[in-house]
């Protein structure tokens, strides 16, 4: 029995093993229903994957969805060149549960986490026997990296400082980012390090207590972008997964000096502009490496904006939070709610080597709910070989 488990371990294992792993096949075949291959590809040609996954970003936080003061030209370009899902749903209106689905292709009710969000002192974490997206790709020879927030477990006394709580135990080769959202008092900025021992073997803490360190929080978006660029350059001759879960625009929001004070929308606009610039730089790096036509880019957010603070004038941690909240417009409610504002947001897929048949999809799409359909398409195409759940 793993140290964080409660109840019947045999039952847990049966539940883990009963789940299919269709998400990787979704990634390989996601555009197959709406795109036609422009030129024949080699049978062994394996696409790269770049996943941008924002934190608490609402449907209305983008130029292409009608925001008049937040400028996101690079994301708009991504949408125009790719496939824009105007009814894109994540599986949960809160962080850890949504990320669980992204990593496993399964609904969060199967996670055993017991809550939507697991904090730094939580005993539970992503079970090591779950087959994850990076693990499935590694079996196909991919290099894998995560550059941003993890939030699927933290080593602590309750779980006996287990290494299984962190990304390297779940298929990633390298990581730099935060263990949880940067607003937790004991949030840490960490990186993988073969010689590291803090807080567990294989990792090194860069700094602790992030809410008290504005300069560090303001550097998070840039750090993640730079790390992703380095990863792409080092692995451009191999197939790779670059997972980029930016911390922003989760409260409290921070922008680097280059972007602070530039947007008509204030700090939120600055934050979104810095993310937008990161998207553009990574796309340029793919182009310079000759990888544009063999890289699937996915852009979304874990859930909607945290509108419970939309009337907060003075918060001890977030300041005048009402000015920093994003937009679920035109939908009702936001983060933590099962109304559409909580789990309906931006969703864009781009693979430049494919011709568009339908640049915009108005039918509902959910990255777990539609998986079996995409998975069948992936199997028919033989896109990623044979990938199965753990046995």
Polypeptide structure, described:
The radius of gyration is 20 Å and the shape is globular. 52% of the residues are buried. The chain has one domain: Alkaline Phosphatase, subunit A (3-Layer(aba) Sandwich), CATH 3.40.720.10. With 391 residues, the chain is an alpha/beta fold. The strands form three sheets. The protein has a ten-stranded mixed beta sheet with strand order 8-7-6-5-9-2-10-12-3-14. The protein is built from nine helices and 15 strands.
C-alpha termini separation: 17 Å
Described by strand count, sense and barrel closure, the largest sheet is: 10 strands, mixed
Structural class: alpha/beta
Strand order across the largest sheet: 8-7-6-5-9-2-10-12-3-14
CATH class: Alpha Beta
Q: What is the CATH superfamily classification? A: Alkaline Phosphatase, subunit A
């Amino acid at each position: 029995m793993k140290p964080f488990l409660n109840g019947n371990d045999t039952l847990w294992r049966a539940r883990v093993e009963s789940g299919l792993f269709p998400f990787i096949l979704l990634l390989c075949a996601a555009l197959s229903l709406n795109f036609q291959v422009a030129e024949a590809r080699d049978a062994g040609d394996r696409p790269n994957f770049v996943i941008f996954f924002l934190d608490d970003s609402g449907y209305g936080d983008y130029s292409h969805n009608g925001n008049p003061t937040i400028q996101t030209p690079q994301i708009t370009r991504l949408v125009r060149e790719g496939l824009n899902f105007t009814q894109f749903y994540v599986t949960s209106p809160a962080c850890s549960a949504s990320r669980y689905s992204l990593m496993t292709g399964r609904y969060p009710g199967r996670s055993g986490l017991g809550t939507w969000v697991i904090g730094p002192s939580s005993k539970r974490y992503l079970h090591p026997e779950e087959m994850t997206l990076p693990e499935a790709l590694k079996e196909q020879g991919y290099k894998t990296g995560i550059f941003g927030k993890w939030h699927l477990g933290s080593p602590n006394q309750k779980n006996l400082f287990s290494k299984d709580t962190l990304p390297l135990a779940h298929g990633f080769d390298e990581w730099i980012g935060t263990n949880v959202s940067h607003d937790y008092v004991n949030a840490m900025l960490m990186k993988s390090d073969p010689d590291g021992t803090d807080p567990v073997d294989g990792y090194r803490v860069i700094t602790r207590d992030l809410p008290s360190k504005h300069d560090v929080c303001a550097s998070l978006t840039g750090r993640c972008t730079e790390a992703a660029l380095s990863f792409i350059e080092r692995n451009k001759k191999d197939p790779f997964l670059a997972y980029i879960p930016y911390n922003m625009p989760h409260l409290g929001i921070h922008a680097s000096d280059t972007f602070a004070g530039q947007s008509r929308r204030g700090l939120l606009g600055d934050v979104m502009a810095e993310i937008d610039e990161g998207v553009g730089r990574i796309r340029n790096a793919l182009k310079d490496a000759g990888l544009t036509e063999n890289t699937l880019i996915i852009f979304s957010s874990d859930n909607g904006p945290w509108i419970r603070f939309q009337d907060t004038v003075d918060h001890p941690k977030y300041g005048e939070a009402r000015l920093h909240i994003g937009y679920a417009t035109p939908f009702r409610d936001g983060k933590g709610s099962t109304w559409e504002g909580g789990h309906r947001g931006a969703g864009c897929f781009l693979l430049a080597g494919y011709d568009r048949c339908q640049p915009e999809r108005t039918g509902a799409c959910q990255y777990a709910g539609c998986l079996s359909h995409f998975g069948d398409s992936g199997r028919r195409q033989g896109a990623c070989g044979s990938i199965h759940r753990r046995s």
